[in-house]
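Class prep. Sample record?

___
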Amino acid sequence: MFSDKQLQTIIEGNAVGNYFPYDTNNEQEIEAHIRRLFYRLKRIPDVRLEAEWNHFGSGYASFVEIFCYRKEDITVIKEKNGERELEISGIIVDICRLAPVAIMGEDKRFKTIDIATNEELAGGFGSLLDDPRRVKVGKKFQTVERQLHQALEEFEYKNLDEAILKQPLTFKTKIATIYRKPREYKVMDALFYWED
């Protein structure tokens, strides 16, 4: 899908693409496009979204991570000492900032909430980046997955599957990732990385 030259361009932090806004390599235009997609996703009935726009608080992420879930997928694990522990099942959608591609897969998130103030006290979540085999969605979320796919297509994003993502890179490079060693890099690492 991508040439070695295009993948190296992406690794270097530059956008590739044949249509707007990726053909401009303009970060603000691309970010605005992803935000429009986010607001389109917000129109999906009964789906809640949480987006990570700020590069996970430091460094640079080549993607925006959006966690999508329904109210029915929130489970209260326990309530004690004025705190509520929640488990939230949903779908992670990672939108690449450097190419018009996305990935999605299931995740479980955990939150501890102050019952009186509704303030989040602690939390934990996973990532799709550790293994291309995580890029899949089960039957429980098929309806939501279809709706997410439709929105991605409207905004001209290709949702990549495991077969593409797990292909090894055929050239030597250095990627800021903690998930694999240089001689084990995959196409996924070139497209979706977080440099802390």
Q: What stands out?
A: The first helix runs from residue 4 to 11.
